[in-house]
Amino acid sequence: MKNLAIIAIVLMAAACGGDSGISAEDQAAQNEAIEQINTIETQAAELEKEIEAVGKEVEDINKELDQMLKDI
Amino acid sequence: MKKILKQSAFLTLILMISAAGLLAQDKATEEEVVQFRSLLKEQQMSETQMDNMVDRFREMPKLQRDNMMGQLKDKVQKATASGTAKAQKGKSLKEQMSDKKGEIDGVQRGKPKVDKPKTETGEIDGIQRGTPIIDKANSETGEIDGIQRGENVKEKMKDRAEEMKSDAKGSMEDAKSEMSERSEDMKGKAWSVNKGELSKADFGKARADWAKNRQARAEQMKDRIRKSGQNIEAAQSKIAKARERLNLKKESGEISEESYYERSARLDNIEKRLTMLNDKSMNELERLDKVKSQVESMEK
Questions:
Q1: Which of B83, B153, B189, B287 has its CA 20 to 30 A from that of B218?
Q2: At what angle do helices B62-88 and B30-42 cross, to 10 degrees?
Q3: ipTM
Q4: Is B272 on the interface with A (CB under 8 A)?
Q5: How far apart are the first and last CA of chain A?
Q6: Which of A40, A56, A60, A62 is the best substitution to test chain B (most B C-beta atoms within 10 A)?
C-alpha cells in the first residue's frame, strides 16, 4: 500500500513536471486551428488584392471612356 | 533489513523511470522534427546544415523549440508576403492576367508557394548561408543570447528556458490582448503557432472574434466586387454611346475613315478588357464565397 502511494506520487510528479500550461492535445488542436486560419488569411489576402486591382482597372477604363466621349 | 533493501531498490527503479519519463517529455517529438525540417527546407538550406540544425533542435528545451519554430514560421510567411508583393510590383493587371496560365502572382504552378528569399550576399533575413543560426550568433560576440563561451551553456539554456517560461506565464494577459488585436486587424497577417499558451476558452474566444472580423471584411470585399460590377455596366453603356456618336460623325463626314477605324479598334479593345474583368470579378465572387464558408466552418 505504501509502495503504491509512493509510485502514484512519483508518477504524478513526472506527469506534472514537464509543462504546466495547456494540455498537449489542446495545444495541438490550437496549432491546427492556427494553421487553418493562416491558410484562410493567405487566400483572403490574395483575393483582396485581386479584387482591388480589378476595381481599379475598371475605374481607369471608365475614365478613359469619359475622355473618349469628350473627344468624339 | 531485507525488506528495506528491497523497498529502496524498488524506489530507485521508480525514480529512474520517472527521470527517463521527464527527459522523454522534454525531447522533440518526431512530428516537431518533421515540421522543423520542412521549415528549414523552405529556407533553402543544404542537407548538412539542416541535419546540424535538427540535431540542435532535438536537444533544445520545449519552450526554446517552440520559440524557434515560431520565428522560422514568421520568416517563411514574411518571405511569402514579400515574394508576392515583388511579383505584383511593376506588372499590370493585364500582364498578370495573361500570365495566369502558367503563373499566378509570380508563383509558378507545380512549384512551392513560398518564394525563397535571396540576396546577393546569400543571406536569408540576416542569416548567412552555410552558417547555422546558433553559430552565427556565436561568431561575432561569442555569445548565444548573452551566454558567454566557456560557460556551461546547457545549464544557462535551461535557466533561460525557465525564465522564458515564467515570462510567458506573466504575460498571459499580453498574449490575450495580442490575440484579440490580431483578430481585429487581420489584414493578411498570419497567426504564429505557440505564441502564448491560451486556455481553450480564451483561444476559442479569439478564434470567434477573428471569424467575426473576417466575415465582416468578406462583406466589404463583396461590396467592392458589386461596385466593380456596376462600373463595368456603366463602362459598357459608355462604349455603346461612343460607338453611336462615332457612327454619326462618320456618316456626317466629320471624322476621317482612318480616325473612325482607329477609335473603333480602341473601343473593341476596351470591350475585350471589360469582358475579361467581368469574368475575373465572377471568379472572385466564387472564391470569396468559398473563403466565407471556410470561415463559417471555423466558427463551429
A1: B83
A2: 30
A3: 0.72
A4: no
A5: 103
A6: A40
Cβ–Cβ contact B86 with A under 8 A? no
Q: How far apart are CA B159 and CA B64, in angstroms?
A: 11
Q: How many CB atoms lie within 10 A of CB B254?
A: 13
> Angle CA(B39)–CA(B44)–CA(B45) in degrees, nearest 5?
90
Backbone angles phi, psi at B103, to 5 degrees: -145, 135
What the block records as the C-alpha cell of B265 is 479598334
Q: Do B287 and A47 touch (CB under 8 A)?
A: yes
- Cβ contact (<8 Å) for B193 and A35? yes
Query: Which 8-state DSSP code applies to residue B109?
Result: T
Residue pLDDT, tens place only, B257-287? 999 999 999 999 999 999 999 999 999 999 9
Residue in chain B closest to A13 (alpha carbons) equals B18
- pTM listed for this prediction: 0.46
- From CA A19, how far away is CA B67, in angstroms rounded? 15
Query: Cβ separation of A72 and B263 shorter than 8 Å?
Result: yes
Interface of A with B in 40-69 (CB under 8 A): 40-59, 61-62, 64-66, 68-69
| Distance of alpha carbon B134 from alpha carbon B132, whole angstroms | 6
- Which B positions 42-71 lie with beta carbon below 8 A of chain A? 62
Structure letter (DSSP) for residue B254: -
Q: Which three cell numbers stand for residue B258?
A: 482612318
**Cβ B108 vs Cβ B117: under 8 Å:** no
B260: cell is 473612325
The predicted-structure confidence for B145-169, as pLDDT tens digits, reads as follows 444 444 455 666 677 667 766 555 5
Using alpha carbons, select from A48, A40, A60, A33 the residue that is nearest to residue B84. A48
DSSP letters spanning B204-221: HHHHHHHHHHHHHHHHHH
φ, ψ for residue B181, nearest 5 deg: -65, -45
Measured between CA atoms, how close is B274 to chain A, in angstroms? 7
Tell me the C-alpha distance between A42 and B79, whole Å. 13
Q: What is the pLDDT of residues B78-134, one digit of tens each?
A: 777 665 544 444 443 334 333 433 333 333 333 343 343 444 444 434 334 443 433
For chain B, say whether A9 makes contact (Cβ under 8 Å).
no
